[in-house]
């Protein structure tokens, strides 16, 4: 009886070559990959092993076909020649590959050392379908930005720019076009059974080639260990010339995984837009400090969160500055070389204490400790502009743009500094670029409208105020509403001005206000000088964060600046002479 071909395959156990052999080969390749990553072996070994396994596969199929049945089958001369020929071809091809292919690690290092100067670290993709891991997908890359900045000479873009990229731009082409970066570090977090796996890759955005890639198991909720593994593996792919010789000793992370997790969750929430999110962020920072009282970044984060509240008048001054001042003083005492602490300290002295000389000393200290600290560049630049030192302010604003090209913070500062310096066209362009990227940014429309007001483009200024108004859910804050009124007034939209003033003063009074500086400017536009000076004096006594505006000539007519009462009140602020 003739035996079918399928029966022959079964009897001769050829199935082993198509089932067992690939499974065994996969295990072998995984083992080789592990040793390459663990001990820095030549990366070509993985492909070499694959070539040898492919040759072995053909030998396995022939062997099982000829000797798979029960009993002993003699190895024929012809069969020996075929095995020998396959072996020779495999070895020759493997030798050719080994001799001619470039070591991937060496390629990576040579590529990284040529023209790579700017790195964009993107938020990781959360592929777990579990929103509770967002703090990892945002927090890990943010911490990597800090680590890589501290350990290498690469210019690492801040999260303010990289995290706001549209999903469609989170690729090599988008990063190169939007951020002008040379390198892109991305990753994804996946859940395998009950374990989390983090996959990372470093890509040359110029040609799209992957320079480095690795995968890491997130074990025991130990995010500290995970970040160390990622950082160390990445650094091995970079040439020694890319690493800083004198590395900062700043304590950027806690050795306690629970502390680091609280800090990362707080950072994720601190970028929210509501007071509830801000309070949750503060609670995480406070919990981090309770566990590790020496964890400096958490103190600075608390102080910074409070300063942001102060700038936007979302709480009373005492509530804001007491905790902020204590937190930042503790941070500096624990680590006097932590740049970010001096940024926040400078902001407290600028917006809270009106101690201009000490504010500048703190900003300068932050800049001296880390000249690539974007927050230091932006806030020091804004301070210099407030002191009417525009040339210095513009230099720092431009440098911040290089490091942080598309964030609201850097673009707003560039537009604001140019506005104060009376570079109105440049200011308008900066705000327009920002609005192209952030089309729902209310203050962007207000300040571009402000700029257009000075350019006598009143119709366009009105369009901006209308757009801003449409984005506001109800009434805006005191300062926002006062800016509407000023644009209406300067542009001679009298009906709009009077209506806005009437609505404003129907809600703002002695017992119901947030920003007395804003109230004073409304009375100035209303030509009520007595109440303007009354609220100006009130602003100075209460130390409103916005009082520095009284020192800026742009917002005040010569008549007001020469008014004896204004000169008397302004003298209380001790502005430095230009």
Provide a compact summary of the structure.
This protein has 578 residues and is of the alpha/beta class. The chain has helices at 5-11, 15-18, 20-39, 44-67, 77-100, 104-114, 134-151, 159-162, 172-179, 223-236, 257-270, 275-291, 296-311, 317-334, 339-353, 356-369, 374-386, 390-403, 408-420, 424-437, 442-454, 458-471, 478-490, 494-507, 516-525, 529-542, 558-561, 564-571; strands spanning 118-121, 125-126, 155-156, 183-192, 195-204, 210-218.
Main attributes of the structure:
about 65% helix; alpha/beta; 28 helices; about 575 residues; Rossmann fold; six-stranded mixed beta sheet; Serine Threonine Protein Phosphatase 5, Tetratricopeptide repeat
CATH superfamily of one domain: ABC-type transport auxiliary lipoprotein component
Q: Could you tell me the number of beta strands?
A: 6
Q: Which structural category do the helix and sheet elements fall into? A: alpha/beta
Main β-sheet description: 6 strands, mixed
CATH C-level class of one domain is Alpha Beta
Task: Note the beta-strand portion.
Answer: 5-15%
Radius of gyration: 32 Å
Based on the structure given, which CATH architecture of one domain is correct? 3-Layer(aba) Sandwich
Terminal CA distance reads: 109 Å
State the share of residues found in helices, binned by percent. 55-70%
Mean pLDDT across every amino acid position: 84
Shape: elongated
Q: Name the poorly predicted regions.
A: 107-115
Number of helices: 28
Question: Looking at CATH, which topology of one domain would you report?
Answer: Rossmann fold
InterPro entries: TPR-like_helical_dom_sf (IPR011990), TPR_rpt (IPR019734), Ycf3 (IPR050498)
Keywords: Membrane, Repeat, TPR repeat, Transmembrane, Transmembrane helix
